Amino acid sequence: MNTLCCGDCLDVLRQFVPDGSVDLVYIDPPFNSKRDYNLFFDDKKLQTQRIAFEDTWTYKKVQDSLEELHTLEHERLWSLLIVYQKVAPHAFPYLVMMSLRLLEIHRVLKPTGSFYLHCDPTMSHYLKTLCDVIYGENHLRNELIWHYGQRTDFHKGHFSRKHDILLFYAESDETMVNQIRQQWEKQEFLTHRHDVKVDEDGKEFIWTDGGKPGVRYKRFVEEVLKEGKPFDDVWDLPLLNSAAKERLGYPTQKPRALLERIVKASSNEGDLVLDAFCGCGTTIDAAESLGRKWIGIDISPMAISLIKRRLRDTYKSKLSDYEVKGIPVDEASAIKLWQENKYAFQDWWLLEFEVFSEGKGADKGIDGIGLYKVGKRANDTLKVAYQVKGGEHISSKDVDALLGILAKFECQAGVFLTIEPPTKPMVETIATSGTVTTPIGMFPRLQLLTLKDFFEGKKLELPAENLTFKKAGTHKTEAEQLTL
Q1: pTM of the full predicted structure?
Q2: CATH value at residue 292
């Protein structure tokens, strides 16, 4: 079954993915950018953000990985890393982190499988040497250039940076690239080919050997144009702009066209595709649309929530069955999560409702925020404040506090989520809190849902269209983030 996993890909690969089982792996890992990538929720009364993922690596952060690498019988890889520790200390912790994960990816890839590593020029040369050691330097098929040439900005100290790099490795001579082609424009073709002739019937043609030297045959230009031009190793594809329909507000989101090209080229229907850093799920979306099986892994509960919504909204009833690992599946496992990490519990439960979780940080008196469409106009929305309580003793004063939060942040409604059952005064306060009138009907001003109710399938009374992550964004488009 298709699988979506929340967790560190190193652990997930070891626990759930067998040796030599995957046909195609694509990863778009962190690039060691020394920054955090945030999601923002911004309106007049509430400006908040949370980390989508961190991309800062230190010796302390990777100490366990370093110790484990030292015990592995991979002398060449260890020797290479020790060199980098001396000559590239800024990259060394990141490369230690990536080494263990690249080894696991190599383990799960079929002997005839294909591996694509997406990176930018800051780390691509370091990562290439790791992959050369793990896969073999003779098994690099291509260094692909993804050229996203919208920007026309000028820099005094360097040329404008407009590309990422994809390293494509395959170890077996049996590994083939499917012929995928792009459309030829006739004028473009004629510009490239100066040997076009015209036969006695007035039809344009060229002579070609078809890849077999010494064998020449006639091909009509009309036929060549219809067949299309094979892709080379420079791919011109635009970035997602801020108005793109597929944009989800997730930092570093890649265009689906890029992943569709990779999936088409290096897999067939029914093959298994793996993305071990799947972010908002573009690889998963491409694999699902092209009839491939898939495994997506990401350490961020936010990413998992976005992918679930993306798949549901895109495919609806046609979505293939899939399972989710790494998040609570019943009341007992949810309570265990709360006991281990109350912030992770809060994150998980709020994201089950696809609302913006504040996460760990300064307490604004609100744990989550949801935005719902209630009319045709842009400002026809219902803003809902969420409060989560774990094992603490709860009372009516908690509901009163939530009511105060509604006024402070101009929220029209509130939801109280709790592990403990409510007290009688709480139930009475919520029942007498009134309703909110919207263009599509009335909704309760306050609602309460217990963990037990949630797992028994009880639903909140809320508008059907959730706009929360369409409102959330990065303030800057990816093009603007990459102008350095």
Answers
A1: 0.81
A2: 3.40.50.150
